[in-house]
Write a structure and sequence with these properties.
73% helix, 275 residues, 11 helices, mainly alpha
């Protein structure tokens, strides 16, 4: 180990310093928000801390000056759950379909991921105009959901392609040789093997939807989602309650990621026992 240390040149330490700066840049603001969210009741938006308390967390849920924050939170959670389910199911079957060559597969693929390069605000404007032309009202659960899926589905499809690249189709062939029907092969072989990857796709669907704002601005109608509500709060709220909602949403995002990793670990543990 000492020899390896002696061989480390200037490049290693420059890269290490760059990585340390990257980590500080990435997590430093989150750490500051986390600390300031525990300001005392007389504290402000900046340091120094004037006491340590959970006052602003309580104020967030009990005060009426923050608007419909609870409703926005529920809508974002429901939108995220719907995006999670639809993204996982559609990307699974789309990925399986693209495993075989068919006429128009190339143009169809590029058509599916085109929305990734279109600015979100313009896409939201197009969806709102389309709904108005068709005579439909904008609703967070319909037009908002469509806008979010234009973001989550292409990402999910690309992830599913990466998952399927490591999939060994000989398991399916063995199942068919043993007399399994296409449905039984899908249910008992393909989906269980792909399930950890499906969790990753679903997780991306939820987090991308939960944090989405540009596509939501013009498509959710009169009832805002949480990112829009927080953005509105920054113009009229000047208390550490802003940091409190930032801490709550960050903890929720990490909890979802932790649940996903726990699910993958549980599946791998069961498979190891089965062997």
């Amino acid at each position: 180990m000492s020899q390896a240390t002696q061989k480390r040149g200037l490049g290693f330490y420059l890269l290490a310093a760059f990585f340390a700066l990257f980590v500080i840049f990435l997590y430093g603001p989150m750490l500051v928000i986390f600390i300031l969210s525990f300001q005392g009741p007389t504290g402000g938006l900046t340091f120094p801390l004037r006491g340590v308390s959970t006052h602003w967390f309580n104020d967030l849920w009990t005060s009426t000056r923050y608007g419909d924050l609870g409703g926005a939170f529920r809508r974002s959670m429901v939108l995220g759950a719907m995006s999670l389910a639809i993204t996982a199911i559609v990307c699974l079957f789309a990925g399986l379909a693209f495993r075989k060559r068919f006429m128009g597969a190339g143009p169809l693929f590029y058509l599916a991921i085109t929305s990734l390069v279109v600015p979100g605000i313009l896409l939201g404007l197009g969806i709102s105009q389309l709904f108005q032309l068709l005579g439909f009202r904008l609703n967070w659960w319909l037009s908002g959901l469509g806008a979010h899926l234009s973001w989550t589905l292409p990402f999910g499809l690309l992830i599913m392609f990466a998952v399927l690249n490591r999939f060994d189709s000989s398991w399916e062939e063995a199942a068919r040789d043993a007399g399994a029907s296409p449905w039984q092969t899908l249910r008992y072989v393909t989906v269980p093997i792909l399930f950890p990857g499906l969790i990753a796709v679903a997780l991306f669907g939820f987090t991308l939807s939960y944090d989405e704002m540009p596509r939501s601005l013009l498509t959710v109608g009169g009832r805002n989602t949480l990112p829009i509500e927080i953005s509105n709060m920054t113009t009229n709220v000047t208390t550490p309650a802003l940091y409190a909602i930032g801490t709550v949403t960050s903890v929720l995002s990490f909890a979802v990621i932790a649940l996903a990793f726990a699910g993958i670990a549980l599946i791998q543990k069961r498979r190891a026992r089965a062997k």
